[in-house]
Amino acid sequence: MSSVKEWPETERPRERLIKHGAEILSDAHLLAIVLRTGSNGKTVIDTAIELLQSFGGLRGLDAASIGELKKFKGLGPAKIAQIKASFELGKRTLSQKAKDKIFNSAEIVYNYFFPKLNGLKKEVFITLLLDTKLKLIKEVKVSEGTLNQSLIHPREVFKEAVKDSAYALILIHNHPSGDPTPSEQDIEITKKLKKACEVLEIPILDHVIIGSGTYFSMKEKGII
Fold first, then answer.
1. HEC profile for 82-126?
2. In a domain, 222, yes or no
3. 149 falls in which pLDDT band (50, 70, 90)?
4. Are 113 and 67 within one domain?
């Protein structure tokens, strides 16, 4: 197998990015630039394609643990660090953009969080702390795993809100199944949290459940 360096310059991922921009490259070619070199006699692009296939695309690769990545032949500490660092930079860029957003609708919440939560294997419960203009103060991950009363306690949800003097909250979690329809447990937990927020005078504006290509807003459905 020839090295990518032996390919025509117009076909090399790095050169194409410099000349035409990153947006024209495929996921595999972008990942190849991050990896820099191939392994086990394969080109870096072959390695990138195998990685994406093994982990189910970029989302699965992002969600993979360090241990899972170590099991992939050809990935040493340096390449694993490069992959994780590139994903983290993307997430931090999104977080910076969120500072200017006004979170005043479930659609805005969905559009911002769908890329982050789509494809995750576990449920993640997040609280958005908002100021008086409904701009983001902080994004807090409260728990990871199937929602239940022991994981989602009002104390954990409101601790950061009180600390950071939040004006209001929006609750968010994903359904790995892709169906955002709330369970009875989801509704029960939301109502419990709403009662607690009335005491603290920090309103919950909505609880948005992120599905695959769609969402469920408890505010829009009249649940809260």
1. HHHHHHHHHHHHHHHHHCCCECCCHHHHHHHHHHHHCCCCCCEEE
2. no
3. very low
4. no
Write the CA distances from 139 to 19, 35, 131, 167, integer angstroms. Answer: 37, 30, 12, 14
Please write the tens of the pLDDT for every residue from 64-95.
889 999 999 889 999 999 999 998 888 777 76
Residue in the structure block whose two tokens are 């977080």 = 95
CATH of the domain at 177: 3.40.140.10
Residue with tokens 């790095």: 14
Q: Which two tokens stand for residue 188?
A: 């029960």
Instruction: Identify the pLDDT of residue 150.
Output: 41
Quickly tell me which residue has 């699965």 as its tokens.
60
Examine the domain organization and report whether 80 and 173 are in the same domain.
Answer: no
29 and 107 co-located in one domain: no
Give rounded-to-5 percent helix, strand, coil for the chain. Answer: 50, 15, 35
